[in-house]
């Protein structure tokens, strides 16, 4: 009798969990349980060439189809970022790039925007810092993380002692 009730409880829990991850009715389904979102992409002079994740799409204005999670965030298809780049029409304009975090390896996910606008006359910084903006908390700098680089203090010089030397410090692990 106990096994029958356990099986019934497991089936009920599985049915409840399967119902939570469904796609809304009428939405276009995509690979890996994703759904299609249409993003309007525009540029200051119409006709700028658009590239999404390294593939040429078409000139602006356009509606770009992005497959994302049902909660409205970018889906992790194996890369850390979803990159949309606009190329200029004339020589006095600049390449514009938008980076969106996909949540790869438990990094924060970005929401899929409804509209992306590129101002081709705006000068882009020569070396822009990478910052992930999300709806909770301050901006996140994933490449300046103390867990990644180690603590910001000095460990001192090498120890010249016995034949086996161990130095523990950021980016230097000699055994």
Explain what this protein looks like in three dimensions.
The chain is an alpha+beta fold and 175 residues long. 13% of the residues lie in helices and 27% in strands. The chain has helices at residues 2-20, 146-149; strands spanning 35-43, 49-52, 55-59, 62-68, 81-87, 96-101, 115-118, 167-169, 172-174. It has a 4-stranded antiparallel sheet with strand order 3-2-5-6, with no helix packed on it. A hairpin with a 2-residue loop joins strand 2 (49-52) and strand 3 (55-59). The longest helix has 19 residues, at 2-20. It is flat and about 75 Å long. The mean pLDDT is 76.
Strand-helix topology:
Blueprint: H1 2-20, E1 35-43, E2 49-52, E3 55-59, E4 62-68, E5 81-87, E6 96-101, E7 115-118, H2 146-149, E8 167-169, E9 172-174
Parallel strand pairs: 1-7
Antiparallel strand pairs: 1-4, 2-3, 2-5, 5-6, 8-9
Any idea what the radius of gyration is?
24 Å
Structural class computed from helices and strand pairing: alpha+beta
What is the general shape? Answer: flat
Q: What's the tally of helices?
A: 2
Helix content bin = 10-25%
* Proportion of residues in β-strands: 25-35%
Major β-sheet, in short? Answer: 4 strands, antiparallel
Side-by-side strand order of the widest sheet: 3-2-5-6
> Mean pLDDT across all residues, rounded?
76
Order of helices and strands: HEEEEEEEHEE
- Low-pLDDT regions: none
| Number of DSSP-assigned strands | 9
From the N-terminal CA to the C-terminal CA, the straight-line distance is: 60 Å
């Amino acid at each position: 009798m106990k096994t029958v009730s356990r099986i019934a409880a497991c089936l009920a829990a599985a049915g409840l969990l399967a119902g939570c991850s469904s796609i809304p009715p009428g939405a276009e389904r995509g690979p890996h349980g994703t759904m299609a979102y249409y993003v309007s992409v525009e540029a200051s002079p119409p006709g700028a060439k658009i590239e999404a994740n390294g593939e040429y799409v078409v000139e602006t204005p356009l509606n770009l189809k992005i497959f994302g999670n049902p909660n409205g965030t970018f889906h992790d298809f194996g890369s850390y970022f979803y990159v949309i780049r606009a190329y200029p029409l004339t020589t006095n304009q600049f390449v514009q790039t938008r980076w969106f975090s996909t949540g790869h390896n438990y990094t924060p996910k970005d929401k899929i925007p409804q509209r992306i606008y590129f101002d081709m006359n705006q000068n882009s910084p020569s070396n822009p810092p990478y910052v992930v903006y999300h709806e909770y908390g301050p901006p996140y700098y994933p490449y300046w993380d103390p867990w990644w680089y180690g603590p910001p203090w000095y460990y001192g010089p090498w120890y010249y002692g016995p034949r086996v030397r161990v130095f523990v410090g950021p980016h230097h692990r000699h055994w």
